[in-house]
Write the structure tokens for this entry.
Amino acid sequence: MQKTKKKLRFVKEVSDVLCNCCGRSCKVRWAEIDLYEYAKIDVVWGYGSEHDGEEHLVHLCAPCFFKITENFKLPTRRDQNE
Ligand SMILES: [Zn+2]
């Protein structure tokens, strides 16, 4: 048997994800459901780096992601990297 007690907790929940490049919401509506479509870059620069210890978190909406990556020299799609 487990004894329980009620507790009131405050929970942070994501209400939107904004694109760092254009500032627009990454929310898309599909079949009456709100979804978030974005690319995420989460990095902590390491020892010896010019940005040692800096932490960066970037969200990019799909249009900005494809606009930025279209001129990359190497493909980003996994099935094109093999
Ligand atoms: Zn964007």
Remarks:
- The mean pLDDT is 94.
- Residues 19, 21-22, 24, 60-61, 63-64 surround zinc ion (CB under 6 Å).
- The chain has one helix and four strands.
